[in-house]
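Support case: user asked for a sample of complex input and structure output to validate their parser. Sending the pair below.
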Amino acid sequence: MAETQAKDGFFFTEKHEWVTMEGDFAIIGISDYAQNALGDIVFIDLPKIGKKVQAKDSLGTIESVKAAEELYSPISGEVTEINASLSQDPGQVNSGPFEAWMVKMKGFSSADLSGLMNAAQYRDFVSKLD
Amino acid sequence: MAAKMVPFGGWEMPVQYSSILNEHLTTRKEAGLFDISHMGEILVEGKDAETFLEKMTCNLISDIKEGQVQYNAVVNEAGGLIDDVTIYKWNTNKYLICSNASNYEKVTGHLNKYRSGNVHIEDKSSTYHQLALQGPLADKILSQYLNKNLNSLGYYQFQEFDFQGENILVSRTGYTGEDGFEIYSSVNLGVKLWEELLQSGKPLGLIPVGLGARDTLRLEAKYPLYGHELSEEWTPVESGIGFFVKEKPLPFLGYDKILSHKKNKPLQKIVGLVLEEPGIFRENCSVCGEDGMLLGKTTSGSHSPSRKDSIGLAMLKIEFTEKGTIVYVDIRGQKKRARVETAPFWVGSVRNKK
């Protein structure tokens, strides 16, 4: 998995979610490593807009043909938008995990990011997984 | 070949070669090649072989014609299912039982325990290689490769051929709901057949298929899987394969219980479920009625690549097994509406009758 992408400007959890900032908003998705491990993604259950979560709370479920995985929030905040196109075409996450975002949030603290890995650290983290 | 591997029945098995969706849909549309060497093969020979097998199984052995294969189940005295098997008949003195990977040692032991008269039982699993070639183009691909016309080989019939200096056995059987074959050979020849068949079938779209798609294909066809729908705790009738249970002049083990389930209905039975809301249910989800009463549990469940919805099987109280009955599946605490389906979820190119 040495070639696993980790985009600069993105921050990562050990559960392979990513978060990146866009103005006052945080955008959340899952990494290339995660989509590859899951295989064909066929259903994504996303939270309701307005839902408030703490970091590491569940934001929803990602299901591939064989497995269901929880989507954990990398940060605390309030859900402002979900990527509705994923309900029609969840396979976008397999073909472009860094483009197919899942949730936008506001009201987070940038201190939350300090516990996350940057791209270089995440690349290193992934390279040490089997 | 870069495959994702998983442990299965004591074997390291490829779960997928490319992607489960791609392998599944290609098998439905063209053809897929499965390495199923993990299956067990048990030879039963001797002049009392037929009588012995009648006692051990609940389908009628004497119905099998020479050169025919029969779907059957090895049962125990409590009426439980030891394994679902296919039985190949050469003549009344020679049968081959094809048994599941996780069960063939148990089946061999069980048969030996009840062996009587002139019967010889031999576990040949380590000497056989097995491939399954499945899909609407399987006949064309295999006929071309073997340079034989296989069209006359009927559903659940088998034939032996001399091929590359060895004897191979080809049956028109499978576990996908598509037309196709299972091919038995020596291990060395099997490895070669795998490579050569993939090459030869490639222009027609043939690809290798792993365990992941084998499971979604069998589920769409509504075929049971041991450890899910089939268990020693349940009779074949409860497991939904009571259609082949026969009355016999020589009773099989657990005869009274199994026959009474067949005649009077069991208290519970395996049925198909289709989810009517977004989501996917897997095995071991609770199933309830509208009033919240527990009706049973799901035994298998998956996204259906062909239908693009959520399908599965469940062991439910018999009163709730009629087609169209509405039940609720508990998916991580959310109760989702599902409909009982009694027909296969998908009808492929499989040939129906002999």
